[in-house]
Amino acid sequence: MGYMFNYLGPWRQQIRILAGNRKGRARLTFAEGEFAAVYAMSDVHGCCKELVEAHRRIEEDAARIPGPKLIIMLGDYVDRGPDSSAVLEFLSKSPPPGFQRFALCGNHDAELVKLYRKPAHILEWLGFAGTETLHSYGIDIEHLLQSAAGSEMIARVIRNMIPERHIQFLESLPIMLRMGRVVFVHAGVKPGIELKKQKDSDLMWIRQPFLDDGPQLPVLVIHGHTPARTPTFGPQRIGIDTAVSATGRLTVLTIKGTRVGLLN
């Protein structure tokens, strides 16, 4: 175990809710203390080797801890790194024995769904990220574009090469998980807006003013989305996107009881 501190206090929430947002993705709520250990990581970005290794480290650490454990993924499983398809295949399978695992949706994941459903926006998406993701499915998008393939042909190739079940997996992802006073999201929250009124788009995309001001709510937000070489500690927030596709470091944050730490 690396850096650790007591942040959560004795606060307890006794209810467990699985609720859908009528206008967006599901939002999950668990009682604080429902899991003996919680492990969170974010922004895998196609780095399957590092994802598998992180799971190995988690299982090794959790072997000494009795009781149910949770792995929470904070989004952005695709783009940038070389193995987006392998990452989605891995996360689509069952978690390790003794664990539950929830994967939240990130902005890159939502954009891949949009591309698959509306491939006419392929050039806009490629400008955003995506080339490495298509390569991971065996799609030579540069060749298609150089051959002046129309949007219909590109759409046909994408739909033939990317399994529908990967897209359905991304479409099924919730947008937020709350556990007592701790909130897990991809990007952050809009400061001062109660959680039930937060928009999916803010939870997936926000940077400022959240990074400087924090949530301005009685919660601690664990998030990714904004990369840094090391985890960032701001006002009532911890950012754990350590740019694994560039640095090779996939940070794992742990919560055990009321103690928050980083897994070496």
* Binned strand content: 15-25%
> Averaging pLDDT over every residue, what do you get?
90
Low-pLDDT segments, ≥5 res: 1-7, 9-22
Task: Strand order, main sheet: write it out.
Answer: 2-3-7-8-9-11-10
Main β-sheet: number of strands, strand sense, barrel status? 7 strands, mixed
Count of helical regions? 11
Instruction: Note the overall shape.
Output: globular
Report, as a whole number of angstroms, the end-to-end distance: 6 Å
Roughly what percent helix?
25-40%
What is the radius of gyration computed over CA atoms, rounded to a whole number of angstroms? 18 Å
| Structural class determined from secondary elements | alpha/beta
Query: Would you report the number of β strands?
Result: 13
Order of helices and strands: EEEEHEHEHHHHHHEEHHEEEHEE
Question: Can you walk me through this structure?
Answer:
One of its GO terms (molecular function) is hydrolase activity. Pfam families: Metallophos (PF00149). It comes from Rhizobium leguminosarum bv. trifolii (strain WSM2304). This is Bis(5'nucleosyl)-tetraphosphatase, ApaH. Residues 38-235 form the Calcineurin-like phosphoesterase domain. With 264 residues, the protein is of the alpha/beta class. The protein is 33% helix and 20% strand. The protein contains eleven helices and 13 strands. Strands 2-3-7-8-9-11-10 form a seven-stranded mixed sheet. The protein has a six-stranded mixed sheet with strand order 1-13-12-4-5-6. Strand 12 (252-256) and strand 13 form a beta hairpin. The longest helix is centred in the first third of the chain and has 15 residues, at 48-62. It is globular. The N and C termini lie close together (6 Å). The model is unreliable at 1-7 and 9-22 (pLDDT under 50).
